[in-house]
Amino acid sequence: LEANMAESESLETVTEHERILQEIESTDTACVGPTLRSVYDDQPNAHKRFMEKLDARIRNHDREIEKMCNFHHQGFVDAITELLKVRADAEKLMVQRTFVGFTLFDLPLCKVTAQTEEVIRCRIQQRNMATTVEKLQLCIPGEMMRTGKLMTDMILFLFRYYSALKTMEQLENIYIPRVSQYRFCQIMAETLPKLREEIKEISMSDLKDFLESIRKHSDKIGETAMRQVGFSGDSELCQTSVRSEQPNTPQSQWPERRGNVLLTFVGFLFKVLTAQDLVDFSPVYRCLHIYTVLGDRETFENYYRKQRKKQARLVLQPQSNMHETVEGYRKYFNQIVGFFVVEDHILHATQGLVTRAFTDELWNMALSKIIAVLRTHSSYCSDPDLVLELKNLIVIFADTLQGYGFPVNRLFDLLFEVRDQYNETLLKKWALVFRDIFEQDNYSPIPVENEEEYKSVVSRFPFHDAEIEKQQFPKKLPMSQSVPQIYAQVKEFIYASLKFSESLHRSSTEIDDMLRKSTNLLLTRTLSSCLQNLIKKPHIGLTEVTVCTPMEKFEHMLNQKIDEFIQLADYEWGMSESDGRASGYLMDLINFLRSTFQVFTHLPGKVAQTACMSACKHLATSLMQMLLDTELKQISMGAIQQFNLDVMQCELFASSEPVPGFQGDTLQLAFIDLRQLLDLFMVWDWSTYLADYGQPTSKYLRVNPSTALALLEKMKDTSKKNNIFSQFRKNDRDKQKLIETVVKQLRSLVNGMSQHS
């Protein structure tokens, strides 16, 4: 306990001494006495401990003072050194002062007078200079020039051309007349015309450099513009290396131009660029302003337009081997687009340097040249892949310029010519494919060992036969390997042809018509020619051909093809009068049949005749079904006339003896039912029909009363417009009664036939 108490007292004493020391350091010396007295009033020997504490504190402060002195010692030494140097300089100054004083004291009076006169002359010069400056300030801005040479330099280089011309105009009209009595003003007035000519020459030199620069970089400008259209339009057009599939692989008027908004470009990283980002147009603006200020704008406009016409002719000249690669076509298009992008910007960014009439003239000239060049070079191309890439480039090229307001209808018309060239190259390509298929075929029925092999065949060719499906495996299909292969290649041809139709801005109907025509050419010309060459070979006989396509199966396939053509029929059943010519679908169908039956010229006559008669009967039946279709509610007399023209073409085909060996009009009899029905309605010979009905010698023996009644009912129109009945009511009421009588009698005949049966 005593030890703890002693330790506690010791801590209190230390704390008290620390407080006293802090108080001594921070308190005025006059107040230190009471503080020190408290040390001695404390415990015995407390003052000894305090003294020890105080000594430790003093030593600590001594160390800090020593550190500070060491830190500032070098600075103090440097200051003393500089002070000693100043003392030496001060001593030299005192010596010089003393020397000058003695010199002036000993100087003769005449020398003092001379120096005084020199001072006076200097004062006079200063006064004259001040007067000159004052006069110069009256004629020109003081900050612009002080001497003739400085004037020229500042005008040409500091203020640059346009500002210099304005300044010279102010000098000539405002400032020089005020001080015209001075000779230097006359010199300036004589120099100004020369300066103007120098400025014109310099600005014209800059313009020539600009024209040369855009000539060299027009392909880059056009490339950027066309790439932007590629990114924003059809994604397939962005791929400049579009390739059609190989055959053996699986599936005009001017638009209104927009305002002063420039079409922006998209770079490789989709960075938005404008024409100003790619071309520095300042030389054009500067030269235009200079010539305008000088009153010679017309000269500048004529020069610019003349040079741009020359550059346009150079841009439109293609390289001789442009047709060999797609890069040649791409560079050609890029240069043209770049040229017209620049002209479009000049048109909207300047006031009248180029006019719309001028750009129209340039574009019309360019468009005629472009079409002639593409028509010539595309004719050299025999690769369908290259023709397809050319088509894609033409579409991007046309879309790009159309975005700037240039009419491009003629370019899309040109694409139809390129399409024909593309189809020709495809036909040549597929002719080789068909030839290889026929040469590799063994002309034996396709053997199938199991269900998997059977499904594999029918997945490639839509073959279905109920009798064969009932047979057990293994079995043989009544066709050789060439049949499904030809079918697959026809599909591939359609896919390849469809690629060209993409992005042509055409309706689906027009695209379907393109595909139909190209496919018909493939079947009627290319495939037919391959089959004819195949039959002419001595080692290929009837057996092989019938294995390749058995006659009954061929008839089925032929009838199926006829149905496909019939589905393309698009009659306007309410038309007021016929077109005066047969329908397009029917002419294509007849051409197909004619070329198909040419294949059978080397086969036995009976085989060819059977196939031809079957096709004509199927065609006649299909046309009759179309006319009597229950979903068809109304038919006008004009539609009957158009239908009659189509049937006449069928009869002409039958009479042209597509297959030799028919006697007389045997083949034409396939259309006899249609002919008598149409004649009855065309002549409106109801009295003869009703009077001779049932007699063997009747003119309309093949016309069934129910068929005639069904067609007559379709010609009724509840709206009472554009139909034969409304005409009869207007012209002759008695004829209406006659028609009603005909309808009643036809119904009576139909009912009588039903009761008799």
From TrEMBL:
Keywords: Exocytosis, Transport. Residues 411-545, 556-714 form the Exocyst complex subunit EXOC6/Sec15 C-terminal domain. Component of the exocyst complex involved in the docking of exocytic vesicles with fusion sites on the plasma membrane. Pfam families: EXOC6_Sec15_N (PF20651), Sec15_C (PF04091). GO terms for cellular component: exocyst; membrane. The keyword Nuclease does not apply. The keyword Transport applies. This is Exocyst complex component. Belongs to the SEC15 family. Residues 53-226 form the Exocyst complex component EXOC6/Sec15 N-terminal domain. GO terms for biological process: Golgi to plasma membrane transport; intracellular protein transport; vesicle tethering involved in exocytosis. It comes from the Eukaryota.
